[in-house]
Amino acid sequence: MAHKYLVGMFDDEVPMMNAIEKVRAAGIAIHDAVTPFPVHGIDDALGAKESRLHTAGFVFGATGTAFALFCMTYISVFDWPNVFGGKPYFSLPAWIPISFELTVLFCGVGTTIVYYLRNGMSIFNDVEVYDNRLSSDRFGLIFDLESMDSGEADRVSGMLRDFGAVEIKTQEMRNRQPSMDEQAS
Amino acid sequence: MSAYTSPVREPLVTGSKTYTDISNDICKPVEDRPSLMFMIALIISASVAVMGVVCILYTIWMGIGTWNLHRTIGWGWDITNFVWWIGIGHAGTLISAILLLFRQKWRTGVNRSAEAMTIFAVMCAGLFPLIHMGRIWDAMFIFPYPNSRAGDDLLVNSLWPNFTSPLLWDVFAISTYFTISILFWYTGLVPDLALIRDRATGWRRKIYKVVSFGWTGTARQWQRFESLSLILAGLSTPLVLSVHSIVSFDFATSVIPGWHTTILPPYFVAGAVFSGFAMVLTLMLIARSVLGLKDYITMAHIESMNKVILLTGSIVGIAYTTELFMAWYSGNLYEVHQFFESRAAFGSGPYNWAYWMMMGCNVISPQIFWFKWARRNIAITFIMSIFINIGMWFERFVIIVISLSRDFMPASWATYSPTWVEIGIFVGTMGIFMTLFLIFIKVAPVVAIAEVKSILKSQGDQYLAAQAEEDKRERELGTGGSLSGAFHRDKDGI
């Protein structure tokens, strides 16, 4: 369903950060911020919570270690015990390399999959962008026009212009875009 | 802008670039039609690659008898090439992971191409053990999976690999390394592919829409992006150290004189980084001038890489010397014979020349990088990078072939030289590597655009010049120096 957004575009991150602070202070909800590179401090300015991706990483890594040790123990001690070089069936020191590699493998692959899922990214993603230049040299603050009346929209446009936005436009998207909180960790 | 930058630091982005310039300059090689030079280079490397594939197929068809390996020297060019290629890959991971953790900003200019190199080098490396198996159609036996090789019932009486063997550790290490390197590289590439998508129209836009996975660059996506980069960097750092340590275990856990040394793991890791940086320099010195990226891969980048080469080359030099000392100090007849007669003393073994080739290229010649003028000289850097590539190949040849050629029993002493098939496969892997690299620079940005943009404010020449000017003014007015400038900048909160 078509949905309208107000896009305020800056040509530098400093005025954008300033605008975020002032707009939030004025009690206006920012739908999202789109930047061409990770702007330092923008999470705090927007009041975004820290990502929990590292927790997923830990869980996957621990699973990898457990899986490696379980399999090697089952195989070398129970299923088909063999003596190699007079060492015990349960040769923990010699299993460290493989346990380590599987820890890294599970953690890396699992965390990356979670990253793509949580970011809603896939090759089938029918992506819509607010503006083509937002991945290149423009820093955009997005406001949901459906949730504000025209008076408030004018007020936001005025504020953005005052804080140095080089272009302010209304963008109609085919689908409703999730807000920052809806994309939350 | 996030951190204080010393006024003596050189800018890492020159030419007073804006964000727009960065997008335009780095996307240009991808968006332009391929030049004639590019097509010629691609045809040559693809032809060499095809020749390599023919030699590989010939080996598989006829058997390992097409190589000159025999009972004494069972590992020759194949494993030498395997270790050499794996080593070359290590620079990519060092630049993208270890330098990320060390907050080295110069990594942003070279990390993307170095990571691509890692992936292509590991592909070439992986070929050698596979074809050396002889029966490549049984290659899946190296992985432990429930099978009926020892009976009819799955999971009961399966035949498993030996988990205490370094050769199996290698299987796990290299497949993990390859997987994590691809994830790291591609995840970093996605925002830049999205940039190309947004600049493109027509069918190009459709293709880049698929490969950029629907990246939009929202604050949340960037937050997770940075989080994932840190996690993958934290994983890759011990991983890259483990991979070449495990490769060295293939030798170090055996009892052959020349292999049976505890110094091999750190010495292999340092050597890997050393050879990897040499390969990065060989390729990037050409790429920066052909692709017009001299403002992004600057003299400061080249000098930093030469410093890493000097450091790792010296570590390797100390390792060679330590090996000689330990052989003498151990008083072990076989060790002394291996290191002095077979390797170092001229005229006492058939491969002394290979040892001195290694010493000359890896230890002696890089010492020129103690001089700043040499570190900043393109011609010297390029020649040195080729020398080091050659020297590091000889290091592996020395370790593998010389050690095997002179074992405990003089009756089994032998020499080895490669057949045309072995040479063809090695040259062919270079063709495969170059072909993949050339395709890569045509379809994806060779410099990490988003990362260069993120350091522009602290490393761009116009910003550094302005900062230096401001510091000077403040000093003259006596209102504090560069440190107060740093404080003001940090107060911006950016």
Task: Give a nutshell description of this structure.
The complex is a heterodimer of chains A (185) and B (494). By secondary structure, chain A is α+β, with helices and mostly antiparallel strands.
Fill in the keyword field for this structure.
heterodimer; A: 185 residues; alpha+beta; Alpha-Beta Plaits; 2 domains; four-stranded antiparallel β-sheet; 4 strands; elongated; B: 494 residues; mainly alpha; 17 helices; 0% strand; disordered C terminus
Low-confidence stretches of chain B: 484-494
Distance between the termini of chain B: 6 Å
Structural class of chain B: mainly alpha
What is the residue-averaged pLDDT of chain B?
87
Structural class of chain A: alpha+beta
Shape of chain A: elongated
**Estimated radius of gyration of chain B:** 25 Å
How much of the residues of chain A is beta strand, in percent? 5-15%
Order of helices and strands of chain B: HHHHHHHHHHHHHHHHH
Task: Set out the fold topology.
The complex is a heterodimer of chains A (185) and B (494).
Chain A: E1 3-10, H1 13-25, E2 32-34, H2 42-46, H3 53-79, H4 92-118, E3 139-144, H5 150-162, E4 167-173
Helix pairs in contact in A: 3-4
Chain B: H1 19-31, H2 36-62, H3 77-101, H4 107-132, H5 166-199, H6 202-211, H7 219-252, H8 264-290, H9 299-330, H10 333-344, H11 352-364, H12 372-375, H13 378-405, H14 420-443, H15 449-459, H16 461-477, H17 482-491
Helix pairs in contact in B: 1-15, 2-14, 3-4, 3-7, 3-8, 3-13, 4-5, 4-14, 5-6, 5-7, 7-8, 8-9, 8-13, 9-10, 9-11, 10-11, 11-13
Describe the fold and architecture.
The complex is a heterodimer of chains A (185) and B (494). Chain A is of the alpha+beta class and 185 residues long. Chain A folds into 2 domains: 3-36 and 137-173, Alpha-Beta Plaits, CATH 3.30.70.120; 53-118, no CATH class. Chain A is built from 5 helices and 4 strands, in the order βαβαααβαβ. Chain A has helices spanning 13-25, 42-46, 53-79, 92-118, 150-162, and strands at 3-10, 32-34, 139-144, 167-173. A 4-stranded antiparallel beta sheet of chain A has the order 2-3-1-4. In chain A, helix 3 (53-79) runs antiparallel to helix 4 (92-118). Chain B has helices spanning 19-31, 36-62, 77-101, 107-132, 166-199, 202-211, 219-252, 264-290, 299-330, 333-344, 352-364, 372-375, 378-405, 420-443, 449-459, 461-477, 482-491. Chain B has one domain. Chain B has 494 residues and is mainly α.
